[in-house]
Each structure stands twice: as structure tokens, then as C-alpha cells.
Amino acid sequence: MKNKVPNFEKIKSRIILRFDRGDLDSAIKYGVSVVFEFKDRKKFWASFMELPDEYSDKILDECLNQTKRKELRRVISEKSKEVKKRLAEKNAARIQGLRARLNSCRRRGEAEVFLASLTDQEKREAGATDREFRGAIEIRKTALRTSGVLATLGCTLTELNRWSEDGRLPVLFKREIELPTGLRVEARLWSLESVQKASEKVERWRQEDRDRIAQRRREAALRRHKKGDAG
Questions:
Q1: Residue 40: per-residue pLDDT
Q2: Same domain (yes/no): 152, 229
Q3: Is residue 169, in this structure, part of any structural domain at all?
Q4: Mean pLDDT of 54-82
Q5: Which residues fall within 8 angstroms of residue 140, CB to CB, at 6 or more apart?
Q6: Which of 27, 93, 144, 208 could form a disulfide with 18 if both were Cys (CB 3.0 to 4.6 A apart)?
Q7: Are residues 150 and 73 in the same domain?
Q8: Which of 174, 178, 52 lies closest to 118 in space, CA to CA?
Q9: In contact, 153 and 198? CB cutoff 8 Å
Q10: For the chain, how many structural domains are there in total?
Q11: Does any domain span residue 163?
Q12: What are the beta bridge partners of residue 175?
């Protein structure tokens, strides 16, 4: 659509009238709208407006400000699109990773255990079947957190950490939980069955630990003794 030919005298008189009656905002708004309506703005201002400098400067300043704001909005919009694109790519990669891990766990017969560590949304994103979904929920229902294992075995946290790290009582899965304080932490969970079986081995494990510590002390003493003889 072509720009219509403006009646510059009328435009000038309207702007001046608004300024003269103290309606500054209206004068500037009207002047800016006129400037942005016509493509040949330089010719428009130089040849026709002939407004007092104090008037034209205010309008031109606002035109510049609006141009800057438009440019800023354009930059923000482009950056927003880039961020959304990166987030979408990252999310797609995350979902692809979940599905790959689920397929790998399926081959090992550990799909439901893996799914138990995920949120319900992540389970769906990973492509869990209804049976796997229900199985994961059941595993999570019976799994024991650290406090439950300590209470069941009557052991210390140091002992539990040691037995978990050396493989005597391995963690079944880990998942992120939210504490009453709002802090999100990674929680360890053990299968109820493995903890119940471990309750029969606690004293034996403790004796094994004492024997191991005593052995390390004897070896350390022997090294010190040999070092002393060599000196």
C-alpha cells in the first residue's frame, strides 16, 4: 500500500497547537506517528515541517528512542528464539539419552529399576510401557532410603557408606528428592529384600572390617619397622 501524500501544513499546525497548549505527550506522540508513517523522513523534516527547533528536537529524540527500542526488541526476540532453539535441542538430546539408557537396561533386565529413579514425566519421555511403569512404581514403594536402612540394620552411616561402596550392600537406584526446606538432593535407595538379607550379615561384616583394619595396622607397623632397620 503506497503512502498517501501528507498535508504538511495541517500536520505542522496540529503539532504546534499541542505544544502550545502544553500537551507535550500528545504532541510528541502525534509527531512520532507522522514521522514513522512516511518513508522519506529526512525530506519530510527538512522540506516541510519547519517546526521550531525545541519542538522538532523533542519529536526526533523520541523517534530515535523508539527506533532503539524497536531494535532492542528485535535483538531480544532473536536471542529468545536462539535460547528456545538451544533448549529444545538440549531437551531432545536428554530424551534421546533416556530412551537409549532404557533400551540398554531392558537388555540387562533392569528396565524397571532404572525407571524407578525417574520422575513420571521422564518415564513417559523414555518410552516406558505400562507394565514397566507399574513395576517401577512398585519398586519405589518398597525401596528404603538411608534412614530406613540405618534403622533396619542398626548400623552407622559410616558403616552403610563402606558396605555400599565396597559392594556388600549396593544401592539399588538414586533419585532426586525435595527436602522440607525446599532443597533438592540426590537420595540413595536400597531394595527391601537386600537390606533384609544384609541384616543377617551385619556382625560378620563388622568382624571383616575389624580384621581388615587390624591387618592394615600390622602392615603399616611392619613398614615402619623395616624403614627403621634400613636407617
A1: 55
A2: yes
A3: yes
A4: 71
A5: 116, 175, 189
A6: 27
A7: no
A8: 174
A9: yes
A10: 2
A11: yes
A12: 187
Comparing C-alpha atoms, which of 162, 151, 137, 158 is closest to residue 195? 151
What average pLDDT does the segment 117-141 reach?
A: 95
Q: Is the pLDDT of residue 75 over 90?
A: no
- The secondary structure of 130-181, three-state, reads HHHHHHHHHHHHHCECHHHHHHHHCCCHHHHHHHHHCCCCCCCEEEEEECCC
Q: How many residues does the chain have?
A: 231
Q: How far apart are CA 50 and CA 210, in angstroms?
A: 99
Instruction: Supply the Cα-derived Rg of the chain in whole angstroms.
Output: 37
Among 57, 78, 99, residue at a domain's last position: 78
Query: With contact defined as beta carbons under 8 Å apart, do 44 and 38 qualify?
Result: yes
Q: Is residue 39, in this structure, part of any structural domain at all?
A: yes
Closest CA to 48 of 91, 4, 7, 17: 7
Considering 78, 97, 116, which residue would you say is the last residue of a domain?
A: 78
Q: How far apart are CA 184 and CA 205, in angstroms?
A: 33
Query: Residue 231: which H helix or E strand, with range?
Result: none
Residue 1, pLDDT > 80, answer no
Task: State pLDDT tens for residues 175-223.
Answer: 988 878 888 889 999 999 999 999 999 999 999 999 999 999 988 888 8
How far does CA 47 lie from the centroid of its chain? 56
Neighbours of 110 (CB within 10 A): 15
Q: Which whole-number Å values give the CA distances from 94 to 144, 185, 204, 230, in the listed order?
A: 28, 20, 43, 59
Q: How many CB atoms are closer than 10 A to CB 139?
A: 20
Task: Give the count of alpha carbons within 13 A of 98, CB side only.
Answer: 20
On whether residue 103 sits in a domain, the answer given is: no
